[in-house]
Design goal:
The structure is a single chain. Helix 6 runs antiparallel to helix 7. Strand 6 and strand 7 form a beta hairpin. This protein has two domains: about 170 residues, no CATH class; about 120 residues, no CATH class. The longest helix is centred in the middle third of the chain and has 19 residues. By secondary structure, it is α+β, with helices and mostly antiparallel strands. The protein is about 30% helix and about 25% strand. Strands 1, 2, 3, 4, 5, 6 and 7 form a seven-stranded mixed β-sheet that branches. The chain has nine helices and seven strands. One of its GO terms (cellular component) is nucleus.
Length: about 300
């Protein structure tokens, strides 16, 4: 289809091919890349070792996008957007006598990495982000293209010379709900409260200090296979305990991010106490009675 309007009425997703989108994004940055090379006196260098590009991937639900008037096609009324940001472009430089040794020199760094202006859309889907099957079907090919690009290079004409680009991907622009969905974990009401480790809700509430990142995409894939095949012929509860809340096939690798840490389990309780004290203006009183505290709780 030449434009969105030419697409069939039952289309639920529109996307760019990943390599084409990355090439387009880098061509948009041609001036910035050349400025970075000029500052270092390298604008005429062939840069034979190539450039390394850091890509941040993001995916989130866009909420209700239904048309409030008029009759459109009967598609789901929620949408999901998958996008990426070019975080930095660095140049590989040969370091000294040894050809194996190389250093990297930063050529371009995105000044506003969280701005919507630097965020390039890759795929738009009319789908509920909780619908794991449809999300897998739509984003599976995106993940396959991304994996292919990890071990290949893109050659583009930048500043009149062919330049070679390799890519590193960081899937860090996901909220907890999306991380659980793409990594095959149970939804956020699960006993397994953390997307970074195997803690249960009870364990997390007992241990508010010691944390470590133990989950990984590869481990989630292995656990899904155990969940699917049940090789030890265990009961449903035993099997669930063995796989620590993995219940669907993970299809996108994500980077650990802070918003998933399980210490947020007790934040609600702490804020609740603070709000009660604010309602009762406890800073004015030395020792409030139990009845007073009850009335504040009722007000809250």
């Amino acid at each position: 289809a030449a434009s969105v309007d030419d697409a069939p009425a039952d289309t639920i997703t529109r996307r760019f091919r990943y390599d084409v989108a990355l090439a387009s994004a880098l061509m948009d940055l041609e001036e910035d890349i050349m400025d970075g090379l000029r500052e270092r006196g390298l604008e005429d260098s062939p840069c034979t070792l190539g450039f390394s590009v850091m890509i941040k991937e993001s995916c989130d639900g866009m909420g209700d996008v239904s048309e409030k008037h008029g009759g459109g096609p009967p598609v789901p009324e929620k949408a999901v957007r998958f996008s990426f940001t070019v975080m930095s472009v660095s140049l590989h430089m040969a370091d000294g006598e040894e050809e194996e040794e190389e250093e990297t020199m930063m050529i371009f760094q995105e000044p506003k990495p969280n701005s919507e202006l630097s965020c390039k859309p890759l795929c738009l889907m009319f789908v509920d982000e909780s619908d794991h099957e449809t999300l897998t079907a739509v984003l599976g090919p995106v993940a396959a293209e991304r994996n292919a690009m990890k071990c290949s290079r893109l050659i583009l004409s930048i500043g009149g010379l062919p330049r070679s680009f390799s890519f590193q991907f960081r899937g860090s622009g996901y909220d907890e709900k999306m991380v659980r969905d793409v990594e095959g974990l149970e939804a956020s009401g699960s006993t397994y409260v953390c997307t970074l480790c195997d803690s249960t809700r009870a364990e997390a509430s007992q241990n508010m200090v010691l944390h470590s990142v133990t989950r990984s995409h590869q481990e989630n894939l292995e656990r899904y296979e155990i969940w699917r095949t049940n090789p030890f012929s265990e009961s449903a509860d035993e099997l669930r305990d063995r796989v620590k809340g993995v219940s669907a096939k993970p299809f996108l690798e994500t980077q650990p991010t802070l918003d998933a840490l399980h210490w947020d389990i007790s934040n609600a309780t702490e804020f609740y106490k603070i709000f009660q004290d604010e309602i009762g203006e406890v800073f004015r009183k030395t020792n409030p009675t139990r009845e007073e505290r009850r009335s504040w709780r009722a007000a809250l």
